[in-house]
Amino acid sequence: MSRLSNVGIRAIWRAVFFVVGIAVGIVGAVLIITRGTPAGAISESSVAWRSPEEERQIQVYKNTNEAVVFITTITLTVDPSEIFFSIRPREGTGSGCIIDPKRGIILTNLHVVQDAQQIEISFANGQTAQARRLGVDRETDLAVLQVINPPPGLSGLNFGDSARLEVGQRVLAIGNPFGLNRTLTTGILSSLDRTVRVTDTRTMRGLVQTDAAINPGNSGGALLDLDGRLIGINSAILSSSGDSAGIGFAVPINQIKRVLPDLINKGRVLRPRIGWGIVDTNQGPFVERVSQGSPAEIAGVQPVLRRVERAFLQGYVRDFSRADQVVSINGNVVNSRDEIEDITTRLEPGQKLTVVLKRGGPEGRSRQVVIEPVLQ
User: Which residue in the list 95, 162, 219, 235 is annotated as catalytic?
Assistant: First the structure.
């Protein structure tokens, strides 16, 4: 019994040593393979899993980021606090999108380059070049620049179609927020056809809204779809602090395509002008003023402000009793100045307006006039 027990014990120990030997051999082999791997090399199996959407976004960035440039401006400002009103240079930065690599044509926001005496473009390859303004448009806050002696090998962006955009679709924004070159942020389209009052006298219409992070320095940068097509130029943010609050706006590409030929060839955009100013009242929108010789005056539109010229008196008086209230335009009932501007800013060259007016307000006599805007 004792002999059999000893034999069994020795067999068990041999099995244990055999298993341990195999384990040590495997660990050694792993260490040898690991130590033999070059520094920085990662096996294919160790790369983090990426979703198809992530792979698509990565590829879009690789294909498009070099078409977004860094814009630096120098503006000369007068310091009134000094006795001799010294002139000081002030530097500004922003983003731009290359849309014609061969000619060095860049699209950006007007407010990025508005008062600049010098414009410098920095490209992805580290080269820099001077640029000049080709055309500007205050209504859309757009500016077209042309690089002086553009370097070879530039890449440009292809245009998309903003008429096909849908709320909820994913978008990518590339720009230079806070001077951080070609930063990518992602989000969705939050809304379409937004109207944003930029100042007391200027309103931007037809904007697309996105929650992709847009910060100072992103202005003039690209808003892209998941095919890498340019669908808008990032223009503004809605924030009390000036930083991203998840509400950003871009000028849609179809609006840009309509004005781009004029900006490049004429330096400005020719638009149909009526020659009137509208004011909102508690009775509806009234014609506040009419420019002399304008289409509105030719059509017989009567304003609230009337010029008075007498022997010792010259100026304007406000007279609502003889002024025209705008009731409808081209069959569309209008209730505010914004609604009127929405219609008139979308006019095509040569398009006429059929306007229903009421003299003195809602209880006044109604009449219809045809106004033929002029391009200015």
Answer: 219
